[in-house]
């Protein structure tokens, strides 16, 4: 999905994601943020968006967490996945590249692949086991 976006614009408090075309990832990510901003404390806040410009402005929630730190705290990531499932959603791309740590909290980021269906082909044969690399 990354090839459907221009490079991120990172500022101290926010990030701008600008999509090159009207791709499904933009629609999925925007829908997810509109639905869950203010309801889940482990995702960045949505600050703004433009459908015509295909831009999403979200809270900057720090740097990627180290693989070792994630592995030491995998129960937290599993809990986040479970909470999403309760709301009828799947991230579908739980990888180290989509987990940050900021202000003493883990965050899930990058919801371009989120959906109401489990479609993460890299997690094995639909067993939903956590797959971090």
Written account of the structure:
The protein has a single domain (2-123), classed as Orthogonal Bundle (Transferase(Phosphotransferase), domain 1), CATH 1.10.510.10. Helices cover 24% and strands 20% of the residues. The chain is built from 3 helices and 7 strands; from the N terminus they run ββαβββααββ. The chain has helices spanning 24-36, 67-72, 74-86, and strands at 9-10, 14-18, 46-50, 55-59, 63-64, 99-102, 105-108. It has a 4-stranded antiparallel β-sheet with strand order 1-2-4-3, covered by helices on one side. A 3-stranded antiparallel β-sheet has the order 5-6-7. The longest helix is centred in the N-terminal third of the chain and has 13 residues, at 24-36. It is globular. It starts with 8 loop residues before the first strand and ends in a 25-residue tail after the last strand.
Number of helices: 3
Q: What is the second-level CATH architecture?
A: Orthogonal Bundle
- Which of globular, elongated, flat, extended, rod-shaped describes the shape? globular
Major beta sheet, strand line-up: 1-2-4-3
Rounded mean pLDDT score: 90
- Helicity, in percent? 10-25%
CATH superfamily: Transferase(Phosphotransferase) domain 1
């Amino acid at each position: 999905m990354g090839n459907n976006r221009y490079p991120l614009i990172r500022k101290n408090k926010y990030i701008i994601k600008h999509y090159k075309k009207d791709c499904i990832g933009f629609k999925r990510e925007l829908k997810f943020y509109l639905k869950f901003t203010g309801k889940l404390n482990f995702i960045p806040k949505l600050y703004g968006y433009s459908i015509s410009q295909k831009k999403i402005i979200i809270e900057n929630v720090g740097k990627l967490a180290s693989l070792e730190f994630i592995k030491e705290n995998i129960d937290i990531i599993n809990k986040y996945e479970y909470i999403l499932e309760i709301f009828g959603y799947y991230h579908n791309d739980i990888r180290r590249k989509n987990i940050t740590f900021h202000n003493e909290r883990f965050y899930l980021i990058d919801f371009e692949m989120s959906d109401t269906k489990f479609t993460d082909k890299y997690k094995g044969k639909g067993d939903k086991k956590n797959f971090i690399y």
